[in-house]
Design brief:
Blueprint lengths: L10 H18 L32 E7 L4 H13 L7 E8 L5 H11 L4 E7 L27 H4 L6 E5 L3 E3 L3 H5 L9 E3 L1 E2 L10 H5 L1 H4 L9 E2 L3 E5 H7 L1 H14 L8 H8 L4 E2 L28 E3 L6 H6 L19 H5 L1
Helix pairs in contact: 9-10
Length: about 350
């Protein structure tokens, strides 16, 4: 059930909403029709949210994701995986950020309501103008989408009463209870938690211009800075707001427009602000890189160790490879969560 504002209860607005949905659906849903997901129920030991219409519950697990037509199939699979493996699926509240300029935003909402009738969620419009003038071209065009930078603004997009959120990319599936990830201890000071990869060559995420400038390179002095992937993060929004971390990220993006200090989209500003100062998360919570590199998207194996989350970061996406009959072996682990209705099923 969408957690909407009271203004949406206006009968005239709601009628207009339905008419708009139906008119759009006639022309745009033929390409992607999704099945209805089963309803998942809380286990007997789950705490009650008391008021299932509230978005502010401290008992709930709050999950933030972006939502757009290009990655909708991945988002639907990710949502299903979260609910299926949660011990308290009725206590999960989703916060979806969608581009305000997208004409299909209402259709995206209707698609969610149709496939997940019992889902607790709210959709937040994100104006491209907030970041359009700050984005520098990167090594892959998909990384330049303004919505890719929405994670920088979660603290202002989400209601102030939402204090902690798990941010998830759209190209992943969970095979474990998200409540375990959401409960990650952040310690007395950390703003966010994510798996760190200290074996990665950290210097490659920034240009020679950056490292040659003593003022810039000293940014990491005294910090045990390691690479982390921003597709899976636990964020303390209270601490983010108190520290004005959106402004700190924006300052680095503004510098990037004046002098080229990195190449890889929205990741480097996060590294500049947070690397070396985040809480640790076990690697099992982001088995990333399954989409290969940013150029060819070749098949990759899992990292050694247990798995709680599979992440197809990189160029290759499992739904694309499956549709072209060129899947990688691990894409078979994503396929069971695919809610896309096949043409054969539609005809039957």
């Amino acid at each position: 059930m969408p957690l909407e504002s009271p203004s949406l209860l206006n009968p005239l607005w709601f009628l207009l909403f339905l008419l708009t949905i139906n008119a759009t659906a006639l022309t745009t849903t033929k390409a992607h029709v999704f099945k209805e997901a089963p309803k998942f129920y809380n286990s007997p030991t789950c705490p009650s949210l008391h008021n299932d219409s509230t978005v502010c519950s401290d008992v709930a697990v709050h999950v933030a994701m972006t939502l757009d037509a290009a990655y909708l199939r991945g988002s639907m699979a990710a949502i299903l995986s979260v609910l299926q493996h949660s011990s308290c699926p009725e206590n999960v509240i989703f916060h979806f950020v969608a581009a305000a300029s997208t004409s299909n935003s209402l259709l995206l909402t209707q698609t969610l309501m149709t496939s997940f009738p019992y889902l607790k969620f709210r959709v937040y419009p994100f104006g491209d103008s907030a970041v359009a003038g700050l984005i520098s071209t990167s090594i892959r065009s998909a990384l330049d989408c303004p919505l890719n930078y929405a994670r920088n603004y979660l603290a202002t997009l989400l209601p102030p009463c939402v204090r902690r959120v798990v941010y998830l990319d759209s190209d992943l599936v969970l095979v474990d209870d998200i409540a375990k990830l959401a409960a990650t201890p952040l310690g007395p000071h950390a703003v966010l938690a994510a798996p760190e990869y200290c074996n990665a060559n950290f210097t490659t995420y920034f240009t020679p211009t950056f490292w040659a400038n003593p003022t810039l390179s000293l940014t990491f002095e005294g910090r045990d800075a390691c690479y982390f992937n921003t597709g899976v993060m636990v964020i303390d929004l209270d601490r983010w707001r108190a520290g004005s971390y959106t402004n700190k990220i924006v300052e680095w993006m503004e510098l990037q427009k004046r002098m080229r200090i990195y190449e890889l989209g929205s990741l480097p500003p996060f590294l500049l602000v947070f690397a070396g100062n985040i809480a640790s998360v076990d690697h099992r919570w982001n088995q990333h890189g399954l989409g290969g590199d940013n150029f060819r998207g070749l098949c990759r194996d899992l990292h050694p160790g247990p798995v709680s989350l599979l992440h197809w970061s990189g160029k290759g996406k499992p739904w694309v490879r499956l549709d072209t009959n060129r899947p990688c072996p691990l894409d078979a682990l994503w396929a069971p969560y695919d809610l896309l209705q096949t043409p054969f099923a539609l005809e039957s």
